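Quick one, C-alpha cells below:
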C-alpha cells in the first residue's frame, strides 16, 4: 500500500522541504544576528589581548629605564657589587680593601656524653643579644636535648639558633649561634650558676672592617648599601696585604639601544591597537561605537599634556615621539551576493593616529636618541613617575582602571564594570536572548514541518484514491463501450 509520502500525485517529502525553505527566513536572520554578536565578542577578546600586550611592554620599559650604568669588580672573590635600579650612580672607579668580615657569634658548651644526659640542677639561663632578652629555665630532669629545644622555642627568641653537635665518640656540645652579624649583636649568657655548661665563645661577634677610597669604615654587616647612594656591594673575603679591589662604574653600552627598543615595542603595541580598531570600523560586521570610544580614550592620553615632577617634558613630541602620517590599508572579505553566492570584496580604509620615534638628526623637533643622551633623568621621570608619569596614566589610570577593569568606582561611590567588561556583559546577554529566540523558532518550525507532512500526506492519499476511482471508471466505461459494440455487431 502506498505510504502517502512519495507515492501518488504529490512528492510530499520534496514539497514539504521546499515549503520549509520559505519558512526558515526568520531563523536564518536570527542565526546571522547571533553570528554577528559572536564576531563582536571575538573582537573584544582580541582587543583585550592587544591592550595587555601594550601594558606588558610599558612594564618592561619601566624596568629598562632603571640604571643606565653597570658596575664591575676586579676581584669578585673578595667583593661583588650591584647598582640599584631607581638611583643613578655617576661613572667612576672606587677602590676597596677588606680587612675583616663581619661575623655572628658562636657560643659552645662543654662536652656531654649524650644529648639525653640529664642536667641534674635547677637554674635559669638568661640570653641577651642586642636589646633582645629572654630566659630559659632548666630543671634537674631536663636533658641536653630538652635545653636545646627550649632555647629555640623561647618567647622573644628571634635571633638565636641552638643545635647539638656530635664532635667525637660520646662527645656532644650545645652550640648557640646568632643570625645577626656585628659587634653590637654579641651574645651574653648568664645564669649558669652551677657551671653545667661552661660556655665559651670560639667565634665572637665582630664588625666588618674595610677601606673605601682610602677611608676606613666599620659596618655590622658584610652587605654594604650606605656608602654611596645606589651602590651596593658584598664583602666576600679579606683581601691580601697591599691588594685592592676596583669597583668600576661605567655607562652600559647597551642601555641606549635597550631603551630605544623598549620604546619601539610600546609604539608597535599601541599602533597595533589603533590599526585593529580602525579596521573593525571599516567592516560593517564589526563596527562598534564602544571601540571608537576606546581609541579616543587612548588618544586623549597619548596626545595629551603631562605635568611631571622632575621632568621638563610635557608631551610625547617633546621626548621625540610623533604622530605618523595616516596610511591606507585594505583587506579582502567574503560576502554573499543577492543570489546567495559567495564573492570577494576588497575594503579600503585609513589608519590614523599611529606613533613613530623621531630618529631624524636633522629634524627641527626633538629626537628620542638625543634626549637619552642629554636629558635622561627628565626622560625617565616623564615615563615612570608613579603619579603623573606617562606609563602610570596610560597603563594604570586608563587601561587597567577604566577600559579593562571589572569594577570602576563612580563619583557617587558605586562601582560599574569597565568599558570592555560592560560591553561583553551586554553582548553576552544579547547572545543568550537570541539563542532562546532561535530555539523557539526551531521548535515552531518543527511543528510547522510536522503539520505540512500530515496535511500533504492526507492530500496525497486522497488524490491517490481519486486516481484509483478514475482508473476504475475508465475501465468500466471501456468495458461498457466494448459490450455495446458487440451488440451492434
Amino acid at each position: 500500500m502506498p505510504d502517502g509520502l512519495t507515492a501518488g500525485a504529490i512528492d510530499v517529502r520534496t514539497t514539504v522541504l521546499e515549503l520549509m525553505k520559505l519558512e526558515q527566513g526568520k531563523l536564518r536572520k536570527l542565526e546571522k544576528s547571533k553570528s554577528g554578536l559572536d564576531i563582536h565578542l571575538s573582537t573584544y577578546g582580541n582587543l583585550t589581548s592587544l591592550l595587555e600586550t601594550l601594558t606588558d611592554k610599558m612594564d618592561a620599559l619601566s624596568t629598562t629605564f632603571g640604571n643606565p650604568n653597570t658596575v664591575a669588580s676586579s676581584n669578585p672573590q673578595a667583593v661583588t657589587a650591584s647598582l640599584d635600579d631607581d638611583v643613578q650612580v655617576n661613572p667612576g672607579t672606587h677602590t676597596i680593601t677588606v680587612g675583616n668580615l663581619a661575623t655572628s657569634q658562636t657560643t659552645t658548651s662543654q662536652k656531654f656524653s649524650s644529648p639525653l644526659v640529664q642536667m641534674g640542677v635547677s637554674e635559669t639561663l638568661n640570653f641577651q643579644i642586642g636589646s633582645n632578652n629572654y630566659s630559659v629555665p632548666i630543671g634537674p630532669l631536663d636533658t641536653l636535648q630538652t635545653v636545646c629545644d627550649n632555647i629555640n622555642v623561647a618567647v622573644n627568641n628571634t635571633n638565636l639558633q641552638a643545635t647539638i653537635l656530635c664532635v667525637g665518640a660520646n662527645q656532644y656540645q650545645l652550640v648557640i649561634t646568632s643570625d645577626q652579624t656585628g659587634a653590637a649583636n654579641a651574645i651574653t649568657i648568664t645564669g649558669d650558676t652551677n657551671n653545667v655548661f661552661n660556655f665559651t665563645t670560639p667565634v665572637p661577634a665582630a664588625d666588618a672592617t674595610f677601606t673605601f677610597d682610602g677611608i676606613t669604615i666599620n659596618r655590622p654587616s658584610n652587605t654594604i648599601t650606605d656608602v654611596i647612594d645606589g651602590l651596593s656591594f658584598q664583602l666576600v673575603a679579606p683581601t691580601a696585604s697591599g691588594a685592592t679591589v676596583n669597583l668600576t662604574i661605567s655607562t652600559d653600552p647597551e642601555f641606549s639601544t635597550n631603551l630605544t627598543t623598549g620604546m619601539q615595542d610600546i609604539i608597535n603595541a599601541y599602533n597595533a591597537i589603533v590599526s585593529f580598531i580602525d579596521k573593525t570600523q571599516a567592516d560593517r560586521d564589526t563596527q562598534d561605537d564602544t571601540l571608537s570610544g576606546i581609541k579616543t580614550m587612548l588618544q586623549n592620553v597619548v596626545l595629551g599634556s603631562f605635568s611631571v615632577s622632575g621632568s621638563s617634558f610635557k608631551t610625547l613630541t617633546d621626548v621625540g615621539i610623533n604622530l605618523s602620517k595616516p596610511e591606507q590599508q585594505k583587506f579582502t572579505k567574503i560576502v554573499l551576493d543577492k543570489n546567495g553566492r559567495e564573492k570577494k570584496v576588497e575594503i579600503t580604509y585609513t589608519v590614523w593616529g599611529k606613533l613613530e620615534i623621531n630618529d631624524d638628526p636633522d629634524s627641527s623637533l626633538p629626537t628620542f636618541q638625543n634626549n637619552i643622551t642629554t636629558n635622561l633623568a627628565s626622560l625617565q621621570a616623564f615615563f615612570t613617575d608613579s603619579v603623573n608619569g606617562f606609563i602610570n596614566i596610560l597603563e594604570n589610570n586608563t587601561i587597567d582602571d577604566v577600559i579593562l577593569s571589572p569594577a570602576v568606582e563612580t563619583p557617587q561611590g558605586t562601582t560599574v564594570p569597565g568599558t570592555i567588561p560592560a560591553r561583553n556583559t551586554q553582548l553576552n546577554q544579547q547572545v543568550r536572548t537570541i539563542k532562546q529566540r532561535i530555539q523557539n523558532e526551531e521548535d515552531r518550525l518543527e511543528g510547522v514541518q510536522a503539520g505540512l507532512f500530515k496535511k500533504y500526506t492526507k492530500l496525497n492519499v486522497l488524490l491517490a484514491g481519486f486516481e484509483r476511482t478514475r482508473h476504475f471508471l475508465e475501465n468500466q466505461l471501456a468495458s461498457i463501450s466494448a459490450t455495446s459494440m458487440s451488440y451492434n455487431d
